Amino acid sequence: xxxxxxxxxxxxxxxxxxxxxxxxxxxxxxxxxxxxxxxxxxxxxxxxxxxxxxxxxxxxxxxxxxxxxxxxxxxxxxxxxxxxxxxxxxxxxxxxxxxxxxxxxxxxxxxxxxxxxxxxxxxxxxxxxxxxxxxxxxxxxxxxxxxxxxxxxxxxxxxxxxxxxxxxxxxxxxxxxxxxxxxxxxxxxxxxxxxxxxxxxxxxxxxxxxxxxxxxxxxxxxxxxxxxxxxxxxxxxxxxxxxxxxxxxxxxxxxxxxxxxxxxxxxxxxxxxxxxxxxxxxxxxxxxxxxxxxxxxxxxxxxxxxxxxxxxxxxxxxxxxxxxxxxxxxxxxxx
Length: 335
Known about the structure:
Order of helices and strands: HHHHHHHHHHHHH
Number of strands: 0
Distance between the termini: 22 Å
Largest sheet: none
Number of helices: 13
Radius of gyration: 26 Å
Strand content: under 5%
Structural class: mainly alpha
Shape: elongated
């Protein structure tokens, strides 16, 4: 693209758009229609310049002009409870549903790795000896040991808040670091599965695997599902960088990145529920079957939420991205 020729051809349109935006009086119907047409053209011009001949000064001017025009066309918009409701009932479940082909295999493979690590540690005393001394292992696994008191040594409210913060940070790391080809996500996943595998192995070697699962499953089902969703979304974001499909790489990353940001907010709410269960249900005096039953019920409720509401929203065209009026203008790309 010859930038000088392009600017000469369209400068009059940009000046006219700026003049209309500067009018203090109310625009006539004809002027309002003209403003919309000029706004659409300027948005297209901005996308062309960004992709073909990026110029900082021109891009800055047009970005400001398009933003002002968008505000004039769509009006000032404030977040409302309707936005929150739409996000919870459509946007978030749609984003999780769309990512299911990534996070479901991630969950299955991760659980298999944790089980394999648990078997390896539990059946090899030499491996256990590298983890801690025999006396320390007994302190961990004995009745009333550290694996059990971990959930009851701290006030429930403070413990739930700490758990929620730690898990939300792990999920955010998976979502943010996915753009680095997904490699950091694999490390975060492995660390989580290694910790789980160590617990399974040590408690099974002590003949107390049922106690361990009774402590982990009430909150762990939902907690791990949230981590798997974050990891799967992060891996998909990394793959988008490699293979954006029919979209341009910039457009694909922008769309998937915005969905990932929304996913982080939604998963923070999911992990809040998981943290509350870990803080109040796991250390409670309820029978083991009741605590596990609560965990299973909450997990099934979340899966139904994703597959029923999310599936319906996706079939209606929702992708988990922000509303079209909130997105940057893009140039159509041929398939």
